Amino acid sequence: MRIGFGYDVHRFGPGRSVRIGGVTIAHDRGVVAHSDGDVLLHALMDAILGAAGLGDIGLHFPPGDPRYAGADSRELLRAVVKLAGERGLAVGNCDLTLVAEAPRIGPHRASIVANVAADLGITPDRVNVKATTAEGLGAIGRGEGLAGHAAVLLV
Ligand code: MG
Questions:
Q1: CB of 49 closer than 8 Å to CB of 57
Q2: To the nearest whole percent, how much of the chain has pLDDT over 90?
Q3: How far is the CA of 50 from the centre of ligand 1 (A)?
Q4: Ligand 1 centroid to 92 CA: how many Å?
Q5: Per-residue confidence at 36, pLDDT binned at 50, 70, 90?
Q6: Is the alpha carbon torsion for 31, 135, 102, 81 positive or negative?
Q7: Which residue in 67, 68, 7, 60 sits closest to 33, CA to CA?
Q8: Which residues neighbour 132 within 8 Å (Cβ) at sequence distance 6 or greater?
């Protein structure tokens, strides 16, 4: 068994929706990012790569590489799962936390869990998605962006 942790943050910018856990959620702003800016999936990918001893997503999908402009993070996640699989590792379970004042993901939680479970090739009961606010503290508390944290166990 190997444990991994991942973290990602993106700044809000122009736009009318954000991608969180592979779900497009209406919001009064978008996210500034080279890819689709999905903080939850980016944190998860870094957690998997970390647990597998494979570096981080910047190493595998360099920001600024035109191949990943606007990339669908679910596709990148599946590629990361494949890389771990080549090392004989699969995800046992994962625990994801979104930190944002808005949008609220409660209504989308089941869809996010279903997306992540499908991409990891595991059952939904092995995927946990949590959300919290920053209680108005700091940049995220001021609503300038959102962050994702992920813990994962590879077996
Ligand atoms: Mg990112």
A1: yes
A2: 92
A3: 15
A4: 23
A5: very high
A6: positive
A7: 68
A8: 97, 98, 99
HEC assignment per residue over 69-118:
CCCCHHHHHHHHHHHHHHCCCCEEEEEEEEECCCCCCHHHHHHHHHHHHH
For 70-108, what is each residue's pLDDT tens digit? 889 999 999 999 999 999 999 999 999 999 999 999 999
Centre of ligand 1 from the C-alpha of residue 16, in Å: 18
Ligand 1 centre to CA of 39 (Å) is 5
Q: Within a 10 A sphere around the Cβ of 36, how many other Cβ atoms?
A: 23
Instruction: Please give the distance, rounded to the nearest whole angstrom, from the Cα atom of residue 139 to the centre of ligand 1.
Output: 16
Distance 37 CA to ligand 1 centre (A): 5
Coil, strand or helix at 11: strand
If you measure from the C-alpha of residue 9 to the centroid of ligand 1, how many angstroms do you get, rounded to a whole number? 6
Nearest CA to 60 among 30, 80, 87, 42? 80
- Ligand 1 centre and the CA of 42: distance in Å? 5
